[in-house]
Predict the structure.
Amino acid sequence: MTVCIKERCLKILLFLLAGSVWHSAIANQLLSSKIVSNSAIDASVNISTVKPQQMKPLDQQVSFLSRFNPKRGTIVFQVGGFNASQGNAQNIDIEGLIGDYFTVNNGRASNVLLGLGYYFDGFEKDQFSLLYGVNALYLAHTSVQGDVIQEQLFTNLSYHYSITNYPIYAAAKMFIKNSNGKNDITFDLGIGPNYIRTSHFAERSLDDGITIPEDAFSGQTSTALSVMAGFGIKFNKLLGLPCELGYRFFYLGQGSFKKNNDQFLNTLKTGNNYANALIFSIYA
């Protein structure tokens, strides 16, 4: 009888123990599923809040690219005149000889300048504004003249050649506004390649034809780094369109010629060219 009571008590105890274990497992499972669902909700909330932050740089990028809309650009037509300083006295070495020395008798010349610029809006404040873009110019041909001292002893020949410059600048233009709104002070800065075209090299006898000209060089096109800077006054209500009168300084770089004689060990170069210009511009 006692044994039967013990067995029944043991079965009841095991049943209660199993039930408590089962209830705890169910509770743990419900708790874990609740945590997972809460973390999923938090993640979705975080994604929804982060999403606008991720879109913000894209919006800024679209706003930046919209500045390059051609409808927002400013076209600048330019015409003027310039005075150039060019030419370089140098010795042309000849194989087996001393060589010929090329002097520069006239290295300054003037001509017409034409230009076209296309600018985009940069930023604008109450007192100043900034444009940036591309400015291409044409500096018409100028000439260099000098003498040829053969073997550095006999001045029997003279020479001349022409230079034409085609600089293209990545440019910036700043306006300092006047309080009356009638005119602005402008500042220009640019850097870019200059395409230098040398041409019309020719020699002439100085001893009544006894010394025969060699014409040992011919023109070519070369590229050099160029820099431009300047300032001016912009008239906002003149001639029905905004216009500007300004000064520009150009560093145009150095050009060269192609030698036609293999006995020459080096070639003729133009030296570093500079130009000062007065430019009248119309904004459209």
